[in-house]
Amino acid sequence: MITVEGRDVPALTADQMREVDRAMVEDLYIELIQMMENAGRSLAQLAIARFAPVRVTVLAGPGGNGGGGLVAARHLLNRGCTVAVTLSDPDGLTVVPAHQADILGGMGAVMTQRPLPFSPLTRRAGLMSPPE
User: Fold this and answer.
1) In degrees, to the nearest 5, what angle opens at C-alpha 105 toward C-alphas 99 and 106?
2) pLDDT tens per residue across span 52-80
3) pTM
4) In angstroms, rounded to a whole number, what is the distance separating the alpha carbons of residues 28 and 74?
5) Residue 116 CB neighbour total at 10 angstroms
6) pLDDT in tens, 111-121
7) Which of these, 118, 109, 107, lies nearest to 87 by C-alpha position?
8) 86 burial level (CB within 10 Å; 0-12, 13-18, 19+)
9) What is the DSSP string of 40-69?
10) I want to staple 9 with a disulfide (CB 3.0 to 4.6 A). Which of 1, 38, 79, 112 is the partner?
11) Using CA atoms, how far apart are residues 120 and 96, in angstroms rounded to an integer?
């Protein structure tokens, strides 16, 4: 993988990433919620820097990466983007992503289990463009 600045980033296997997460929590005392917040904020900053989005749809699963997406959605919403979130498994959210979903819901973000269909209402709300 290559960064925006053109630097190589080594790839990790799933087992190696689990070990990184374990070391962060057990050895360095950096909790999952803090790692998720950092990842989501960085993702939002990257999206703003590269794409200057006005409308964003976030597709989020029930685990940690989905939670990072929810954090990114919150930061984008805070910066004036219109954000729609589609949760693949709202009932299966693990503890920290569920907390992130609660925060986002409290901010009034649109969250659905399925993508919103195109309609004049979703278009007026700025949540969807008409199909081409």
Assistant:
1) 90
2) 999 999 999 999 999 999 999 999 999 99
3) 0.78
4) 27
5) 15
6) 988 665 655 55
7) 109
8) middle
9) HHHHHHHHHHHH--SEEEEEE-SSHHHHHH
10) 1
11) 35
